[in-house]
Write a structure and sequence with these properties.
Shape: rod-shaped
Largest sheet: 4 strands, antiparallel
Radius of gyration: 45 Å
Strand content: 5-15%
Oligomer: single chain
Structural class: alpha+beta
Strand order of the largest sheet: 2-3-1-4
Length: 271
């Protein structure tokens, strides 16, 4: 217990004079033990000082790293925002370009007429050719005939005369005529199938602005829609329930159903 009274306190480092005085005051204390204790205390003090400096340096580096990380996160967020804006712009441009390409495809076909149910051995027209038919149709049904007229208004007169069966000769009444559209246009028009059925069911007139878009005619004004979703929103706004039809239910419109076996099927009237 006496020796403990003369040991230096934790963290205290004795000078040579103090060490000599301590030895003189404690002649009974073992000199080796005292010197060892002094050396250990000095080493611990130096280690604590070194660790403190190292920890301070690490904290400084971590502070710098945190600042750089925050800057990188902000840059990444800004870059992500700009990328999303450009992506949205590119998507809109792609949709716009696709609509223009479809329009060009259909404009190149606007003078065409597709004739159906013409026997194979009675094709006596010029500038015409037969197109492939769906595989599910029997071989006895002739392929459609595609012909191009030199003038658009002549084609419109022929189609109007075809809609009015009374003006046609008896031998031509079994022949069906359709406008010629690209496969993509037909696919997109089929997406309006339930929409057009709902409009006709509620006696709402409509017409085609182009091969795909619809113009809904109402007393308060005409509305142009470019997708079935827009029509569904309008129907919900007008509180008109949407008809739900089975996918396998045949359409009453031969143009929307691709091909019909009976030429007596009538096309629903559009304004």
């Amino acid at each position: 217990m006496k020796q403990a009274e003369y040991l230096p306190q934790d963290g205290a480092e004795l000078s040579d004079t103090e060490q000599s005085s301590e030895v003189m005051r404690n002649p009974e204390a073992p000199l080796t033990q005292l010197v060892l204790q002094i050396m250990l205390d000095s080493a611990v003090t130096r280690m604590q000082s070194t660790f403190t400096e190292a920890i301070a340096e690490v904290k400084k580096d971590l502070t710098k790293l945190a600042a750089r990380t925050q800057c990188l996160e902000m840059d990444f967020q800004n870059l992500n925002t700009e990328t999303e804006k450009h992506l949205t712009l590119l998507e809109d441009q792609i949709v716009f370009q696709e609509s223009k390409i479809m329009s060009l495809k259909d404009r190149s076909r606007q003078n065409n007429i597709r004739l159906r149910d013409i026997p194979t051995d009675k094709l006596l027209l010029d500038c015409v050719h037969r197109v492939p038919k769906p595989q599910h149709l029997p071989s006895s049904i002739p392929r459609d005939v595609l012909t191009r007229l030199n003038f658009f208004h002549i084609k419109e007169q022929i189609l109007r005369a075809h809609r009015n069966k009374k003006e046609m000769l008896e031998r031509f009444k079994g022949i069906c005529m359709f406008m010629d559209f690209s496969a993509e246009t037909m696919r997109r028009r089929r997406t309006y199938k339930v929409i057009t059925e709902t409009l006709r069911h509620n006696n709402i007139p409509y017409r085609r602005e182009n091969p795909v878009n619809l113009i809904i005619l109402k007393e308060e004004g005409n509305t142009t829609v470019t997708s079935p979703l827009e029509v569904e929103e309008l129907l919900r706004k007008w509180k008109i329930p949407l008809l739900h039809k089975q996918d396998n239910e045949p359409s009453r419109n031969p143009q929307e159903n691709g091909r019909v076996l009976k030429s007596k099927t009538t096309t629903p009237k559009e304004v």
